[in-house]
């Protein structure tokens, strides 16, 4: 993902609504990518704890969010 936002004005993002929409789109894309990566990790034998270490969250949080992934 190459989209970054800071406090500077953005000539390529003409208004706050467009900027917020771009952020929402980026968040949704990242959530889909994370879900696919967790599913792939589980299918390749990684434990919830191992995935949690990599993502910086507890295994319980992962299992609650992605428990259907395997």
Specify the overall morphology: elongated
What pattern of helices and strands is seen along the backbone? HHH
Structural class: mainly alpha
What is the strand tally?
0
The portion of residues forming beta strands comes to under 5%
Query: In which range does the helix fraction lie?
Result: 55-70%
Q: Which radius of gyration do the C-alpha atoms yield? A: 16 Å
Mean pLDDT: 86
- Stretches where pLDDT is under 50 for at least 5 consecutive residues are none
Biggest beta sheet attributes: none
- Number of helical segments? 3
Distance between the termini: 27 Å
Describe this structure in words.
- By secondary structure, this protein is mainly α.
- Helices cover 63% and strands 0% of the residues.
- It contains 3 helices and no strands.
- The mean pLDDT is 86.
Short description:
With 70 residues, the chain is mainly α. It contains three helices and no strands.
Write the layout of secondary structure elements.
Layout: H1 16-43, H2 48-55, H3 59-66
């Amino acid at each position: 993902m190459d989209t970054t936002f800071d406090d500077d004005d953005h000539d390529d993002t003409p208004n706050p609504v467009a900027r917020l929409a771009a952020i929402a789109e980026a968040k949704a894309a990242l959530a889909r990518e994370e879900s696919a990566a967790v599913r792939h990790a589980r299918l390749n034998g990684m434990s919830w704890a191992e995935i949690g270490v990599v993502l910086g969250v507890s295994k319980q949080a992962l299992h609650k969010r992605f428990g259907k992934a395997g």
